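Final report, Chapter 2: Outcomes

The project's central promise was a pipeline that accepts a single protein chain and returns its three-dimensional structure in a standardized token representation, suitable for archiving and comparison. That pipeline is now operational. To close this chapter, we reproduce one record exactly as it appears in the project archive, with the input sequence first and the structure output second.
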Amino acid sequence: MPGASIDCDRQTRKSRLIARAGLCLAIIASGLALRGWGLGLGLPAFVVKYGGSVLWGTMVFFLLAMAASTLSRPRIALVAAVIAIGVELFRLVHFPWLDAFRLTLPGALLLGRIFSMWNMVAYGVGIALGVSFDHLAMSARPGPASDSPHSAS
């Protein structure tokens, strides 16, 4: 019955989107909590700084996984890495209005303030974690996993 297959596929895509959105929201909340209270909880500055960058990379992976769900995990990871590197390199661009935006909380969270090669390493770790979390979340769901373009990764 072709209609049942389409409905099943639509339901599978919807449940994947919900799972990824939940993971993405948890990652965002964790990153905000880490940046907001990490130092106050006694975490080392290194953990707060680069932990936030790891979580930012993971968030980028999940945002892309939701927006481009037909891509394989490796392709999503590649695009996420290109975006992360592009955002980091964009920190080398300075205009008064852009620097003023970077001094705001949204500007600091979205674009960062200063260029760091170590951030790119942290983003890569975060993207790799995103691939792993996504694999675990999608394989833990009931139903066929082999119909996904992500199952081969």
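Archive annotation: Residues 19 and 137 are 7 Å apart (CA to CA).
This record, like all others produced under the grant, will remain available to the consortium after the project formally closes.
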